[in-house]
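From the shared-data thread, chain only:
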Amino acid sequence: MKLWPMMIWGVGIFGMGIELTGAIGAEAIHDFPPQRLAERPTPVPQRPQSLFTTSNPNEHPLMPALRWAHQGLPEIEKIKDYSATLVKRERVGGKLGEYEHIFLKVRHDPFSVYMHFLGPEDLRGREVIYVHNRYDNMIIAHGTGVQRTMFGTVSLKPTGPVAMKGQRYPITEIGILNLVRRLIEVGEKDLQYGECEVKFFEGAKINDRSCTCIQVVHPVPRRNFLFHVARIFVDDQLNLPIRYESYDWPKQPGGEPELIEEYTYLNLKLNNGFTDLDFDPKNPNYNFP
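Structure, as tokens:
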């Protein structure tokens, strides 16, 4: 049931406020604490609303969303780097994990990731670094507490069993750019099939950020569909997807859809001028043994 490559190695402390206007349904958002995080807007041109309109009534319902993704992809590729607090929750092996929070730095070229875990308490303080074609393409990481004392800094294969334990995706698939690329890949495959309902809801709120919510529904379970319901929240100012969530079909007739995964980027700050030192375990601001 993999869909959006967003993140790995997660954590949960902060809450976020999520509001929807329009009749999405009460099942859309649940289990979120009420705390809201302050965010500093990044001045960028606002997204043309025409990207979410259907010009041809006979076209596939996914086409407006795919047009937005195709047109926005080159602009996302121009972003040099960004930082964010990433909130995630995933179902792995049939078990839904708890909310996890991570302070995240991402650089696009070369693809580089720094992660500092903010919680839960047993993960708080863990740090992870990955840089494409550096460190032998291995993850550089350290644990906390006894693990940190016993093992210090370790190298892990990104797709190896240790790094992937409890994770849906490897660190190499993290990030907003990968999310949009995967959106296009899955959406274009779904163009081959009907049984797809797409709605757009303006005025959705993610931590007081105004968003347009793209909701995709496959009413009937089919082998070729990866989800029952998926929602992508596009920040109206940044024109970037800052939240993705997907649900499986109910286990029983009349039951509630089952959460597969959800990822939210909070406090997103673009083009910070990150250097190699931001992705180096020798950075004096980091705590690698």
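The longest helix spans residues 63-78.
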